[in-house]
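One-letter codes give the sequence; each number marks local geometry. A record appears below:


***
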Amino acid sequence: QVQLVESGGDLVQPGGSLRLSCAASGLTFSLYTMGWYRQAPGKQRELVATITNEGTTNYVDSVKGRFTISRDSAKNTVYLQMNSLKPEDTAGYYCNADRIWLGKRNTYWGQGTQVTVSS
């Protein structure tokens, strides 16, 4: 059974920092592209950042230069370091594991962790 468990969400002031973690189990972590998505109230879920099994990263424009995604294969964990946080970063943040193999897509989601940026 695949599990993705996020942690690290909190209430933080504008300009502050947080680090989100996502611990994965039940899958071969090294084969999956890992990602962070977010969803604010009344909005669609959007991609924040992804990191492939080879370490290639991708970010939505609004977080470039502020957020950093990384992965630790020894711990089966993916991280999202968030700096210079803005109120518009407020959202539920969700971890994703994704893999396409022999034409079949396997994708998994965590339950989410709340990030609130407010003074």
Observations:
- The chain has a mean pLDDT of 97.
- The chain has no helices and eleven strands.
